[in-house]
Amino acid sequence: MRPWHLWLGFIPFTQAQATVGGIPAPPGVAFLYNANITVGLTVDVGAIPAGNISVIPVIGGALTGPKISGKILAIGADWGLSTPQGFYYSDMRAQIRTMDNANIYVQMTGLMQGNNGVVYVRTTFQTGHKDYWWLNYAFTFGTMRASGTGYVVDMWYLTA
């Protein structure tokens, strides 16, 4: 039977490879978009063993970027978990409609450590639109901060 990494197409990284040439070059990164997400009134679910759950409805917004621009529809919410240790875990679902009417489902998860107000997020996209198909496979990451009406999100993607 073949080892798992060969089934998945991975080549093992040996200690000898790590020392040849020093530290590997970082992957390329490109800006994807800036989003302003408008939210509604928070619904407090309450305390659970892991902390406190709050649901923050997504009621609109807009995003602009070099490869994608559009509006954020009033579909979705951020199911947030605040822990007694001071961590905040974000689990947001939303819907984008691009300027050319493509529909893109967004799932964003992230973590805020401490009280600096920055949630570091990882986002996945799902769409059937041919012009944005590449987003289904993009590795995207960014930051989310509170604003007067909701959140400001800056998002990047790996290019190599």
UniProtKB/TrEMBL annotation:
Residues 1-16 form the signal peptide. Gene3D superfamilies: 2.40.160.20. It holds the Pfam family DUF3237. It comes from the Eukaryota. InterPro entries: UPF0311. Keywords: Signal. PANTHER family: UPF0311 PROTEIN BLR7842. This is Uncharacterized protein. It comes from Immersiella caudata.
